Amino acid sequence: MTAKRIVITGGSGFVGRRLVRRLHARKDLVTVLSRNPLAARPALPEGVRIAGYTPTSEGPWFDELAHTDALVSLAGEQIVGVRWTDAKKKEFEASRIGANEMLVTALERIPEKHRPKVVVGASGIGYYGPRGPDEEIDETSPAGRDYMALLAQRWEEALGRAATFGVRVVHTRFGVVLGKGGGALDKMALPFRMHVGGPLGSGKQIMSWVHIDDVCGIITLAIDNEEARGPLNAVSPNPVNMDRFAEAMGLILHRKSYLRVPEGAVRALFGEGAEPLLTGQRALPRAVEKLGYEFEYPDLLPALESVLGPD
């Protein structure tokens, strides 16, 4: 396969680091746009180019998007596991909606023949809103109406404008990403390591999880496969409820899953930000599977073992 020229925002983040390593390993020419290139350098492989940019302001970084094959937008402030204040919501919106709007402005100014052929954006299955544990949803399911769903819709709409001038656009909707060195699992594992682990809330809410290697595999598929467009649920085909997830974590860590955290305690800690922890969606990756993607970690126990088990 001919090497591609790929630009990534959020490339020094949890998912971005893994994706950059994967693309660099297959000899793609990767440029990471970073607000702090010096801080990003140690996290990325030698040979990966880093350029400075300001996500919501015009600047010389616009030129970095010209003469490239793909743009991957992964930037966004952490939203799960934090308290949602008004100030935090402004950060969520600026880092997602504002940043994508500026990327599209940059793309629009590039002559058509020099624009990336595809833009792949990160979104989330929060797009669908809270759903009942037995309700299956896929990429054709309607959007929800809560804060996370509305944020995801605006996030996707901002990037989706690139389709109006001929760029193929893919929205990868992440579930709970399992990987070493970051993400929700680090926080979830800590109580288990301290022998006080257990499920949150009722335990019946569905967790549509995905291994970080499969997230990167799905993004790579979206870059390479010209049939990929619109939403792709980046989730395992085998979601589980919170009780089962906590039980599996306890098994891998050799700890008991017995100390249930009451819903009221979670709400007291996170306020409105407790919603994604206490509710869920049984999201399925039907569009991904239709494109022929084969999951590296379709089942929970091997996925957790690869992340939480001994190196």
Which SSEs are present, and which pair or pack?
Layout: E1 5-9, H1 14-25, E2 29-34, H2 37-40, E3 49-52, E4 70-73, H3 86-108, E5 118-124, E6 136-137, H4 147-160, E7 168-174, E8 176-178, H5 183-193, E9 206-207, E10 209-211, H6 212-224, E11 230-234, E12 240-241, H7 242-253, H8 263-270, H9 275-278, E13 282-283, H10 286-290, H11 300-308
Parallel strand pairs: 1-2, 1-4, 2-3, 4-5, 5-7, 6-13, 7-11, 8-10
Antiparallel strand pairs: 9-12
Helix pairs in contact: 1-6, 3-4, 7-11
Task: Give a short synopsis of this structure.
By secondary structure, this protein is an alpha/beta fold. Helices cover 37% and strands 17% of the residues. Strand 4 (70-73), helix 3 (86-108) and strand 5 form a beta-alpha-beta unit.
Shape: globular
Share of residues in strands: 15-25%
**Biggest sheet: strand arrangement:** 3-2-1-4-5-7-11
**Structural class by secondary-structure content:** alpha/beta
The biggest beta sheet reads: 7 strands, parallel
The Cα radius of gyration reads 19 Å
The overall strand count is 13
Query: What oligomeric state is this?
Result: single chain
Mean pLDDT metric: 95
| Span of the ends, CA to CA | 32 Å
Helix content: 25-40%
Number of helices: 11
H and E order: EHEHEEHEEHEEHEEHEEHHHEHH
Task: Extract low-pLDDT stretches.
Answer: none
